[in-house]
Specification:
This protein has 9 helices and 13 strands. The longest helix is centred in the C-terminal third of the chain and has 21 residues. Helix content is 31%, strand content 21%.
């Protein structure tokens, strides 16, 4: 067994350079396997074979909803479970009581948007400008590959870890973290953990939370030629949206944390999707807006949601129509608690 502490850094750097082409190739392969959240099976099967080829002990299972849904950390993204495997690969340490570490990464990615906006296509895995391009190359198949290559490099150098190194390849991170929850409930623990998210190489011991919301705004339909006989849900949404912008500002005005700059937007409130109306010449009778509501580090999730809901209702009370036709706040999908170590 070679002692990691006694190893010269130049040996490690040299080995990593030797594995550079392997890292690029592995990342290209992973990017080329489409894995939008809910469709992670193929990429996990590919990774399972790769991790087994590294002589790691691979645990592969399909978590079921009944195993997770009663846990406080479960986020219901509406996607089925049962055929979406989670992978945990263990590089077993040589000392039973030695400290262990988890390297955690996810394989699911968000939708690609307008495919024509991609120079090479979202699933190309193209390598140019010293970068791999495609959906997930950064968030976060690249991070997962970095963990895998780190293990490969140490194996190549003949290092054997004292404690276990546990690599987790999880599903459903983008919509609430169901894969990591499944790994926790399966019993995987360690003395330390690194989540391999892209951070521009910064150490991030604290993270804001976020809650996905759906806002229902009522209106009253009328022909556009008789606009004043209707009530535009779009116009009423603007009133609520303005109040939410003020909420975001007020929540940050007095917030201080040693890991963040004073003027930094730590927990943004963002509307990402709006749908209203069903005909160009009709005053829209309803609007649905979806977004993410940032939760400050150290803040209670329930209290944060209550403040959001209270803001919506106070804004509604300032409007004659909304007083009698109340907006409805719905919480769905990803509900990420803030965290700090």
């Amino acid at each position: 067994m070679i002692s990691f502490q006694k190893m010269d850094a130049s040996h490690i750097n040299h080995t990593l350079k030797e594995l550079r082409s392997d890292a690029i190739g592995l990342l290209q392969d992973l990017v080329r396997i489409q894995s939008i959240t809910g469709n992670e099976n193929s990429v996990q099967q590919y990774l399972a074979e790769h991790l087994k080829s590294m002589k790691l002990d691979v645990d592969e299972w399909n978590p079921m909803r009944k195993d997770l849904e009663n846990h406080a950390g479960f986020s219901d993204d509406g996607l089925p479970l049962g055929e979406r495997p989670v992978l945990v690969a263990r590089w077993k340490g040589v000392q039973k009581e030695a400290r262990s570490i988890i390297l955690n990464g996810h394989v699911d990615v968000v939708p690609v948007g307008d495919e024509n906006a991609w120079i090479d296509g979202p699933w190309s895995g193209a390598y140019r400008e010293d970068q791999v391009w495609g959906r997930g190359s950064c968030d976060m198949k690249g991070g997962l590959v970095s963990g895998i290559i780190a293990i490969q490099a140490l194996q190549k150098l003949g290092v054997n870890p004292r404690g276990d190194v546990i690599l987790q390849s999880v599903i459903g991170e983008e919509t609430g973290g169901v894969g990591t929850l499944a790994a926790v409930l399966r019993g995987y623990r360690a003395d330390a953990a690194i989540v391999l998210e892209p951070t521009r190489m910064a150490i991030c011991p604290v993270g804001a939370g976020a809650a996905s919301f759906r806002l229902h705004i009522p209106g009253r339909a009328a022909h556009g030629a008789m606009r004043k006989e209707g009530v535009s849900a779009v116009e009423k949404f603007y009133l609520i949206y303005s109040a939410l912008q003020e909420l975001e500002s007020s929540r940050h005005s007095g917030y201080r944390h040693p890991c963040f700059q004073q003027e930094e937007l730590v927990a943004p409130l963002s509307v990402g999707k709006i749908a209203a109306g069903d005909w160009p010449s009709t005053v829209p009778e309803s609007l649905i807006a979806e977004g993410r509501y940032g939760v400050l580090p150290g803040e209670n999730m329930k209290a944060a949601k209550s403040e959001f809901e209270r803001t919506v209702q106070i804004a509604a009370e300032s409007d004659t129509w909304l007083c009698e036709h109340r907006p409805v706040v719905e919480w769905f999908e990803g509900q990420f608690e803030p965290a700090e170590t």
